[in-house]
Each structure stands twice: as structure tokens, then as C-alpha cells.
Amino acid sequence: MTFIRPLILLAATIFVAFACTRQQSPAPEKGVSFALNQYRKQHIDSIQYQIELDIPAGKAGQILGKEIVTFHLNAADSALVLDFNVEASHLQEVRVGGEKVDYQFVNEHIVIDTKHLNKGKNEVAIDFVAGDQSLNRSDDYLYTLFVPDRASTCFPLFDQPNLKASYRLTLKTPVGWEAVSNGKLNAKTVENGKSVYQFGETKPVSSYLFAFAAGKFFKETRTMDGREMTMYYRETDTTKVNRNRDEVFRLHAKSLAWLEDYTSIDYPFGKFDFVLLPSFQYGGMEHPGAIFYNEPALFLDENASVNRRMARASVIAHESAHMWFGDLVTMDWFNDVWLKEVFANFMAAKIVHPSFPEINHELRFLLAHYPNAYEVDRTAGTNPILQQLGNLKNAGTLYGAIIYMKAPIVMRQLERKIGEELMRESLREYLKTYSFGNARWDDLIGIIDKRSPEDITRWSNVWVKTPGMPEYGIEAGKLVQAKDSVSGRVWEQPLVLKTMQNGQLVFPNHDGTGYGYFKMDTTSKAWFFTHYGNAEVSDPVFKGAMLVNSWEGLLRGDGPGPEKLVNSILNTLPKEQNPLLVDYLLGNLQTDWWVFLNADQRAAYQTRVEHEIWQLLNSTRDKGIQTSYFRAFKAMALTDDGWQKMHGLWTGKLEVKGLVLSEEDKISLAYELALKGNGDGKAILNSQLNATKNPDRKARMQFVIPALSASEAERDAFFETLKKEENREKEAWVLDALTYLHHPLRAQSALKYLRPSLDLLQEIQLTGDIFFPTRWLHNTFVGHSSPEAARIAQTFLKEHPDYPYFLKNKILQATDLLDRSVKLSATYAPQEHSPALSQQ
Ligand SMILES: [Zn+2]
Q1: Which of 149, 225, 407, 482 has fewest C-beta within 10 Å?
Q2: From the CA of 100, how far away is ligand 1's center (Å)?
Q3: Cα–Cα dist 734/732, whole Å
């Protein structure tokens, strides 16, 4: 509720400052500030880009660009700011109305003085060298990925989502290359030994959705339901392509037909193609008319599991849904980025789920979303779904579990609240009203509120605009909201409660749809675990919901405590055959084990844990479950016997029926053996390195090995190297190394890395990928549970009272389990650790 007001106030202040300084020295800040975004939105429209890029063969040569931007200005009293985030040498010449003009190139912007501008139509022509940063160049192909503000790293433009524009692109490529973009291909000719692709004018699209790919691609065109579609791909295995392509076309046709029916709006962008790229960064990216996909997600292996097949159908439905939700109607500013993602998932579920009746979609939704959302939302560093964003260059900080995991839950609650029909009607009006334009979450809420008898604005103000999760207790047989951190806040949602044995047993939120912490009494919790697998405790969703309640209870100190939970989970696992529930139980077991039990407590259970998981690994027939048990055993085994078993699996002398180990599995076994062995780690790692065939995996191993060294001095030296940016380039490798560097077995010696790791965080945010700061912190703190570690983080925050808001939150999120563990061990350790329990 307090969200919108400060944002407007802040914007107004910045805006005034900007307007005043503009006259003397127009120096807009780096990136696209909210103020610049607002200013341009108010003054510029009817934008058209005509872009020509000359792409050489190979990945190194310069790409020369020519561009003509035409637009309409409703006032010519201030300098024009175009975004171009490259080195100064990339900018060659700027002409306005055909005349060469002086300009300033400052803070990633081209600034053109008012004296060159007209009220009304303007034409700016720019000669430049395209920036490579977001072109993903390989020797024989390249592709763009401009989300969220990376188009300006390639060519000059107004790089903000609410200045939609039409694009006319011409690409000159080496002969033999294909080319595809949002617009329809109008002509392909050959000129001076190069192919020239001329694409037709696009419909109005946001800059982050403009895209092209060029290079050596195979292609295939089909007509589906009267619509022509071309698939571009790189896969050379024709058997694989033949096995998959019919289904890939069919899934697209089905998704588009479903969406046209649901929205009652025809596919908005004319032509429809898609491009499959071998190591695309995401599952897919919804460029209108030219969706890009990660190739392996669409071309499946033989015998692909039902989960893989559903994931493929889902990503296709997701990107197709974006053509309406995101592309036709786009967020006004990136703080609403969550909305298009939620809608795309929401539609994808409706499109895909009926085709997979063998999957329990309710259980899947529960375990995929709720625990991950709580992991952030229960922390002091949580954020609301709708956040402030002062500058587009920080858009990456918005992404996280709250928008990916909590927002879908909230959207599902909304549909249940207002009904499927009113939801569909509201969405139709929203799409129709804002077609080819932009809209905010509040615009949609306004439409729904008008139609619904309920106060949807009030509901949205709590669920979308404030952070945190409600807590519930039971009073007089009813669920009641516990004291909230924000006084007077009411979390409206339907709540259910199941009672048994004349109300003596109470199971809150038994259908798993409510969001929050549902406190259970000890008797009901104990009964649930002892009757697990019996007829009364057999419904998978009920089991999932109660397990989530128990876990959240553990973290809040609501008994029976970490040791007893290990005991309960070990008793429960043999009674569970559902892979989703087995995974959830094993996840909780391992977190409980490493974060909440101390070394003595673990030692008391060590033999039993290894023995039981080994039994389960050997007795299960389900391949997926077997893999889960293998991973759990590998992570938890520590006795001589456990080490010997792992060693046997690694050398191949020991076999588990049905278990096939990949090269990846062998590598991680070698890591665990080195970590837990007695001095022969180096030999094992070297032998694995020599046996590893895949060159990428070999290089990754070489990087990670020093972090596993038995010598503390070597590990210290390795940590020192991470302070240099060039050593953090392969982020996935760094994250692997961090988990071993900070492994709980070595947490004591890793304490000294914590402070420098925090000191590096701001630099890491600047130099790394959008998810890297979160993952860096997570993998750094995940192995620690000591009061010293908790104190280091607290001291750091105390010493930096003005630390950036987003990063401070990330630290609080990453250290939440650590803080809880410190608090809990003070509560439980003395009473609970009894030899009697350990010997069970
Ligand atoms: Zn998406």
C-alpha cells in the first residue's frame, strides 16, 4: 500500500533535477533512468527505425551499421537522448535532416542539441559499428538477445519498453547464411558477393523484443491451420530432427489456436517463425514473429521422460502466450516484468495440462512454487511482487523467487477469487484496450475491479504490493491469522482445514492452496508421520501440504526439532513412491542434516542414514527416484563404509542394478571422494580428469579442483583468484567451486572468505549475469551454520547502513537459514540430543 507514493515522489524529484540541468549540460545518467523514460514517453512518438547491418564471416570482424530513425516530437525545447552503450569509437557520424551535426556522446547516450530538432517530424541518420555484447557471435552464426535493455549495446535507439516502434531491417551476410527477424522477408538478393536480406516493416514492438539471427541454419516450412511457419535449426542429427519436428510444429499450432480462442484476438504479428539455438541462455525468448528457443529443450532424446515432454509443450505454450501477453500488450516499465511471465505460465498450464493426465498437476504446482517462494518470503530480505525500479540497467535485480514462484500462486488465487469466466473476460478487455501499447498491473486491476463485486484493489495492495507471508494458527477449531509484521494488513484468501477424530487432529491448509505458514500442533504432526502411507494419509497433495507445514514449522522453532525430523523423514521415505514427494523429503533431509544438525548430532545418525538410503537406492525400480537416492547418498555418506561404496561406484567395481552413471556423475563422485577421503584426493581427481572426455567438462574440473584441495593454503590461494573479474567469467564453474570451498565439513576454515565475499558483491553485480549475485551469496553461505558466520554478515550490514537496497535484501535472503540455525541450536541442542534417540 505504501509502494506507489514514494515512487511518484522520487520520480518527480529526479525529473525536476533533470529538467533544470538539461539547459546547460545535458548529461543523462548511465542506463535509462525512470525520469528519462518518462520524459521521452511524454515527448516522442511515431518512431520508425530503418537499420542496415553488414555482417562479415567469422566472429571477429566489425559489423558496420547504418540507421535512419524517424520520429515525431511534440516539443523541440530540449536535447534529444538516444541510447548507445558502446565505446566512443563505434560512433562514426550523426546527421539530422541530411546534415552532419555535432553531438555529445556521454554516459552511454548520444545527445543532440535542440537547435537541430523540429517540433513535429525529425529524421536522424547514424553511421556506426555495431556493439558485439548481445550478438552472441559464433564463427558461422549469430543471434541477438536484447532483453531487458541490451538493444542499445548493438545500435542506437530509444531503449525502453513503452516506446514501441516499427523496424525495417536489412542484413548483409556471407553467401550461404540464412537470416530471420521479426519482420517478414520481402526480398533476398546477392550484391557484391554477399546475400542481402530485406525484411518488411514490423508492427509496433518494444525494443527488447526486436531480434534477428543469421548464419548457417537448416530450415523447414510447414503450413499449419492455414498459417505458414518456418523452423530454423542447427541440429545435424537428422534422426533426432525427424523424430521431433512434427510434434514441434503441432504444439505451436495448437498453442496459437488455443490462445486465439481464449483471447478472441487473432495472432497479432502476421508472420510466425521460430529459431532453435544450441546453447540459448533461456528456455525460450518471445520475439514476436521469431521466437528463439534452446534447441535441446525442443529436440528431445529417444525415451524422453513424461516430464521432459511436458516441459517442451510448456515452453512452446509459454512463448506462444507471450505473443499476446507481453508482445501485443507490454509492461510500461520493467518493474511489471513479472506480469507477462505469470500470464505466460498461467496460459501454458491451461494449454498443456489436459494433455498430461498422468501427472498430478496440483502436487507439482504445490512443490514447484510454495517452498521456493517461502524460502525468500519468510526472510527479512524479501520484496513485494511489484517493486520499484529507478533505472533500467538494474532490471536484473527484480528477478527472483518472488516473481517466479509467488506471483503464479497469487495469480491462481485471483482467478479462484473472481472465477475463470470473469478472468477471461477481463483479460480480453485488457488485451483489446491496450493492443500494441503498454499497460501496468493497476490497469488490469482496474478492469477487474469494475466487473467484480469484490474489492480487488484492496486485495492487490496486500498481495502484490507488500512483501512477506501471512502466518496462521488454530483457535476454537478455526484458522486465524497470527499477528502480522504490518499492523492491520489482512491477507484475504480462502482457507481450509481438515479435522479428524472429533477435532482432536487438525490439518490446516490440507489442499495445499493457501499461502503462508500454517502452524500445526505436535499431536497432529506426530500422527501424520506415524500414519504416513496408510489410507488416511495417502492423498499426494495432502501429504505434500503437511510436509511443507512441518518444514516451515521446523524453521520457526515449532517442534519437534531438527533431530526428530531426520528420524521422521527416514521412517517416511520407504513409504513414498511418488518422485516429487521423494525429492522434497530428500531435500529437507539434506538441509536439516547440514544446516541444522551439528557435527555430533550428525555423527549419531550417520550410520543409519547411510544404511537406509543405500537400501532404498538398491530397492527402488523407478529410475528417477533411484537417481535422487544416489545423489542423496553421495552428498551424505561419510563413514569408511560409505566412502568405500562411493569409491566402488566410481571405479565401476561396485554396481547398483539399474543405476547408470554419466560422466557428470563420475566427476561429482570424485569430488565427494576427494573431499571426504584421507589424503588420496589428488590421485582420485587426477585420474578422473584424465578419464573425462568432454573438453568443456574437463576445463570445468581443472577450474574446480583447487577448491577441493586438502591443503588450506591452496584453497586460500584459489579464493584469492576469485577476486579478479577474469577468473569469475565462467560463473557456473565459480558456483561449483564455492560449494566445495564452503562445504560444511570445511566451514571453519572458510569463515575467513565470508567478509571478502561480501566486499566483492557490488563489483559482482556490475560484472556478472543477473542471477550471479544471488547465487554467489547462496553458494557462499549455504555451508555455514555457525554463530561466527552469522555475525560476519550482520557486522557487514551494520557497517554499511547505505548499502544498495536490492543487494542488502539478497544478503538477508542468503543468510536466513544460517540465522535460523543459530537460533534453533540454542533452543534445541541441549534438551534434544539424547543418546536414546540417536540409537533408534
Ligand atoms: Zn517468459
Answers
A1: 225
A2: 42
A3: 5
User: What does 480-529 look like in DSSP terms, one character per residue?
Assistant: EEPPPSSTT--------EEEETTTTEEEETTTS---SEE---HHHHHHHH
Cα 402 to ligand 1 centre (Å): 15
Q: Which residue has the cell 533452543?
A: 827
How high is the pLDDT of residue 837? 40
Instruction: From 309, 204, 188, 326, select the one nearest 263 (Cα to Cα).
Output: 326
Q: What is the pLDDT of residue 833?
A: 45
**Cβ(200)–Cβ(186) under 8 Å?**
yes
CB atoms within 10 A of CB 399: 16
Cβ atoms of 331 and 339 within 8 Å: the answer is yes
What rounded mean pLDDT belongs to the chain? 93
Alpha helices in 353-434 (DSSP H): 361-377, 401, 407-418, 420-433
Chain CA centroid to CA 480, Å = 33
- Mean pLDDT for the stretch of residues 764-775: 86
Tell me: the pLDDT tens digits for 508-536?
999 999 999 999 999 999 999 999 999 99
The grid coordinates listed for 399 are 528477478
Distance 562 CA to ligand 1 centre (A): 38
- Amino acid letter, 104: Q
Is residue 436 within 8 A of residue 164, CB to CB? The reply is: yes
Q: State the Cα angle at 248 between 293 and 224, rounded to 5°.
A: 115
Neighbours of ion ligand 1 (CB under 5 A): 341, 344
- 619 burial class (0-12, 13-18, 19+ CB within 10 angstroms)? exposed
Query: Distance of CA 596 to CAs 167, 259, 520, Å?
Result: 56, 47, 20
Q: Residue 615: which H helix or E strand, with range?
A: helix 599-619
Find the angle CA(107)-CA(113)-CA(117) to the nearest 5 degrees: 130
Q: Over the Cα atoms of the chain, what is R_g?
A: 29
Q: How far is the CA of 209 from the centre of ligand 1 (A)?
A: 12
Contact of 482 with 472, CB cutoff 8 Å: yes
pLDDT number for residue 828: 64
End-to-end CA distance of the chain, in Å?
Answer: 52
Give the chain's largest Cα–Cα span: 89
Q: How far is the CA of 326 from the centre of ligand 1 (A)?
A: 8
Beta bridge partners of 213: 143, 180
CA of 20: how far to CAs of 24, 107, 452, in Å?
8, 18, 45
Q: 361: CA distance to ligand 1 center in Å?
A: 20
Residue 760's contacts (CB-CB under 8 Å, 6 or more residues apart) are 722, 723
Grid cell digits, residue 428 = 480480453
Kindly tell me the burial class for residue 601, based on how many C-beta atoms sit within 10 Å of its own C-beta (0-12, 13-18, 19 or more). Answer: buried
Grouping H, G, I as helix, E, B as strand and the rest as coil, residue 72 is strand
Backbone phi and psi for residue 395, each to the nearest 5 degrees, phi listed first: -55, -30
Residues 6 or more apart from 160 whose CB is under 8 A from it?
32, 36, 37, 40, 41, 149, 207, 333, 392
Tens digits of residue pLDDT in 663-718: 989 999 999 999 999 878 999 999 999 999 888 889 999 999 999 999 999 999 99
Q: Give the whole-angstrom CA distance, residue 474 versus residue 480.
A: 6
Ligand 1 centroid, distance to 243 Cα (angstroms): 26
pLDDT at 26: 56
- In which band, very low, low, confident or very high, does the pLDDT at 560 lie, cut at 50, 70 and 90? confident
How far CA 39 is from CA of 6, 152, 306, in Å, comes to 19, 18, 50
Give distance in angstroms: CA of 322 to centre of ligand 1: 7
Q: Residue 237 phi/psi, 5° resolution?
A: -80, 100
Per-residue pLDDT band at 836 (split at 50, 70, 90) = very low
